[in-house]
SDR family oxidoreductase
Amino acid sequence: MASTDPTRLDGQAALVTGASSGIGRASAMALAGVGARVAVNYRGSPEQADEVVGEIEKAGGRAIAVQADVSKEDEVLAMFAEAEDKLGPLDVVVSNAGIQKDAKIGEMSLDDWNAVIAVNLTGAFLVGREAIRRFRAKGRRPDVSRALGKLIFDSSVHQLVPWAFHVNYAASKGGIHLLMRSLAQEVAEEGIRVNSVAPGAIATAINAEERQDNADDIKTLIPYGRIGDPEDIGRIVAWLASDAADYIVGQTIFADGGMSLYPGFRGNG
Ligand code: NAD
């Protein structure tokens, strides 16, 4: 059951939204890698989710695929019910699903605004609210973790760094920033740790086009000189979920190669 190694998640169950690709996939793999049973949420691609489940099982772990659109309340509730039914009470929930619909402000449609807010921010609310309800219902399990539950949001450097032509996305991540901190303040006394990870530029499908067109420009924004891999974020998610990070409450861990250092201000600015 529980390990004496505080970085392990043996005996714990985790749910990761948007886990059939990119950062969510890497987070699911990393959580399974330290012993968690993992529910791999996907919206529309069961083959990709099954592939993630297969990879986890091949490595000796336990995982299931669960379909749900995180912007729909009934689907989120059903996703949690199915995950707990199959894996047992959840100890870790990672709200990762996200989309971009970029446009200049004069050309941004209300549909594009609403779609991004619905998935990135309302989805985070729906998933976070149900995670907290489920942690409360489960009760403390000090044999597996010091915390009652661990809720992690996938935010972005753009909760801090403005992003022209992406105002819907930046607004959604700015919203996650205070959703996370306010929730953390509300539930910390119950033993629930709420935190975020804020990636910089990570090589995934969400930015494949931008990377193809502007890879060199993007690198000038990263003092550390490389675009991140999904695994760079997955490892942080697994650590944040573990008792090794037990005293981290209401924080955003920026994992961005220094992007949020505003490298344009080196020298004379
Ligand atoms: P991705 O496109 O590979 O992953 C996004 C996932 O979310 C996909 O699996 C997609 O199917 C899923 N998804 C989209 N809408 C959904 C919905 N309504 N319900 C359920 N799932 C849904 O891209 P990614 O980069 O891995 O993105 C994951 C998260 O990381 C997002 O929240 C994104 O904003 C954030 N992020 C990414 C970067 C980056 O550079 N890649 C940087 C900062 C933050």
Summary: The chain has one domain: 13-265. DSSP finds seven helices and seven strands in the chain. Residues 17-18, 20-24, 41, 43, 69-71, 96-99, 119, 154, 156, 199, 201-202, 204-207 surround nicotinamide-adenine-dinucleotide (CB under 6 Å).
